[in-house]
Amino acid sequence: MIKKLSLVSLFTLLPASYYFAQTTVSAYLKDAEGKPVERAEVDMKGNDNDVTADKIGYFQFVDLKPGHYQIVITKPNYETKVMEFDVMDNEKKKDLGTITLYSALTSADQGLAIIDSDGDDEDSNSGQASTVGLLQSSQDIFSRIAAFDLGFYWFRPRGIDGRFGETMLNGVSMIKSDNGNVDFGNWGGLNEITRYPEISANHSPSEYAFGGNSSVVYKNTKASEYRKGFQFTQSLTNRNYRNRTSLRYSSGMSKSGWAFTVMGARRWAKEGIQEGTFYDAYGAYLGIEKKFNDKHSMTFNFIGAPYRRSTASPSTQEVYNYRGVHYNSYWGYQDGEQRSERVRKGFQPIFQIQDFWKINKNNSLWTSVSYQFGKDKGSRLDWQNVQNPSPTYYRNLPSYYDFLDPNASVVDPTGAMTTAQDAFQTSLRGWTTGDPNITQLNWDRLYRRNMQQPAGNYYGQTGRRALYYLVNDVSDDKIWNVATHFVHNFNDNTKFLLNVSYQNYRSEQYREVNDLLGADFVLNRDPFAATNQPGKSGLYNQGEENVTKKVGDKMTYDYIFRRQEVKVNPGVRFTTGAFDVFVSALAGYSTSNREGLFNHYLYKDSFGKGADYNYWNYGLKGQVVYRLNGRNFFVYNGAYYNQAPYLEDLFVNPRVNGSVAPNVKSMTVNANDLSYVISSPFLKVRLTGYLVDTDNETTVQRFFADGIPLKSVDAEGNQTNVQSAFVSQVMTDVKKRNMGVEVGVDVKVLPTLSLQGLASLGQYTYKNDPRTYFASDAVGVFGNGLPYVDLGKAYITNYRQGGTPQQAYSVGFRYNNPKYWWIGANWNYFDENYLDPAALVRTESFVQNDVTGTPYAGLTEADLRKVLAPNRLPSSFFLNANAGKSWVIGKYYVLISATVNNILDNRKYITGGFEQTRNAVYPTFAEDLNREYTLFAPKYWYTQGRSYFVNLQFRF
């Protein structure tokens, strides 16, 4: 078992000595088979004279003074090794013996299902899309278990959203300026290239960037750092995809100073673990490195990962009760073949050049230039002047028909006119038996409806207008990054760091016609304009010559997001006595704007370039490590900084106008933690208490609401009821508090057996009642003369934050046999998981009678508490296991590993979800809540049941 420290932040331990004697320290590196490990990097923290192991795995440090030292040994395909040792007075030589590096294949890509949010559902700000990508291996036991075992079940350490971290690739940020997320699919499948990052956990300072309060993850892909030769990997799984194949070749560094690494990978599945999903993704990497001399080298990196995959839907509990946790409403049969309406495809390659210059003994400078471009497209079904065709639309479920007068005339899920009583029986029978004509999309019916449309003349074009059609929501990005990383060593104990970065982000976001489903064209016109906005043109782009759109044409919205950002991040690390100190600062400036390319019929500010929104941001981070002795430490991390809002948080409804919500400010974070760490050969413990306060956060929720009651007001003051619309809900000045305790323990009870465990007890709450605003692209201007309305405060103080369990526990073991096989297992338990409270139903407008202007008659505080109680999700536990074995056959190396998660096939655990807010007034909300199946119940994602992942690796 690898000996590792209990905290990533302990990488900051520096040699502390002021004596005059000097010592040579040496060791040999070998793998689990006893073979030498060549070209591993050995980094002595606090000293720039890092070394590389030679062909027999030997390395040495010379002229070391007496004191305490720490080295970090890294090598792709191996777990990172952290070692400490002491140099004593008059000790001329110190032999560390043989150091064994173990394979890290057990932390390979696990084929996890990634839930996408397309921005048209109420889950658009749920955080589900960004969590899995944060699964990273770090050096302390708590972080390792949290990532690879708890992270599988959507656990977020400290409840911190991944948008508030930093992920860097070859010196530049991979954060998208529109929403703060990282698209890990941009290097999907290239796990053997990108798997080995350096991590500054949580809000601890980093050498490479200031970061946020959700870790700095730094990846570097130098061609010479990969093992020379070929590596083939084959994976089998029953998760998001079924198969993964990859092949990598590395040349090693030639005598002339050139190194090449190339890799290709593919992941695919005809159908994944979720019904009706498929997966087809490729990955390619090319790395070229030129070493001019010992002080200067340059690298070129190309990363490209085209993909095409379908996604799965959230559902209400009623639907899951009928069809189980693998149900997916986004697909149906067409001519006997499965077809999904929600397909994500894209290709956004990255080109990077990096220059490494060791100016002299005390100074070094890294410079990176990166350009990324390409399109990401997400398809979805759309319709005009017809009912939502989704099988889970509330009017298609048994609960809707059961709510009606049994003798009322209705259209049943098959399209036939009948009574509500008969429609209920038809719907119930279809859902309980799994009739795909009722439980899935009926593509053939959609085609028939379109093709039965009589040809007509529309805006000068004759043909059949589409009632149903597919669209793509497109992001066309162009991103430039330039960054420098400068290091100056004043002496062995003091280091100055300076990071300067510039990003130029441009993203055109628009909707295009994907498929007309048998029709000739679709109108670029609001289908609800006739009823919602009588007398208005209804055109999404007034003045255009061609209103009738065909495949590939833009429609509905088209705008450009621009953002430029500069960050300056100086830092100082030094050692004095028993203290190691790291102080990092930030000064940043960003300017953001929106340029509309469509002239929306309701909004004067929809077209043209809008105002620039400028933000200055500052921050300070500090870390202090106090060494009681070589095995006991106290570690403090503190951070205070502000962060500009992302583009999607800044603009209320950027698809149709350039309006910005009032009082949008930079978010302010005040984060502190204190740890006690034990690091001995037999016991590793980290005990941490933390407190993170967040102020001035802006949150935006966007969703399509069919049936929500709204009113628009024209220039003459005439009111019109609006029943269906794409709406935005904005909360400003949101204050949060995340506090808790973390414990991680690793006990080596035998040389081959370790017991491991963690406990995470958190409390993540809202601290205030934030201001709430509401906008709709079908209303236009409200009675206040603005494209949004102020709903006042959302009363959510002390509500729990959603998105992650607030309590988590894990106990497990790992056995490493000397004959190169291992087995491990762990038990995980989760509790205190909540849905985020929907703001709209917790404002005064929810209880206010629109006619009298007073609260609804008879409404009591007890009634209100009942309907607005927090949505707490059930607790649950899981068993996971993993095993592996390696062989050396001549000059070949073979390794096989397997992981099984959720061995007991627990399908009752809800990983996340969101509250629906279409009943925005108390009487209808309470009435709906009292039904057996609530029409607008919360939508959930469930864990996917038992899953496995098997890896076979072959090196030659």
Report the oligomer: single chain
Structural class of the secondary elements?
A: mainly beta
Tally of individual helices: 12
Measure the end-to-end span. 25 Å
How much beta, percentage-wise?
A: over 45%
Our Rg estimate from Cα atoms comes to 29 Å
Q: What's the overall average pLDDT, rounded?
A: 87
Estimated helix fraction? under 10%
The gross shape turns out to be globular
Signal peptide: 1-21
InterPro entries: Beta-barrel_TonB_sf, CarboxyPept-like_regulatory
Keywords: Cell outer membrane, Membrane, Signal
Protein name: Carboxypeptidase-like regulatory domain-containing protein
Quickly list its features.
956 residues, mainly beta, 27-stranded antiparallel β-sheet, 4-stranded antiparallel β-sheet, 51 strands, globular, cell outer membrane
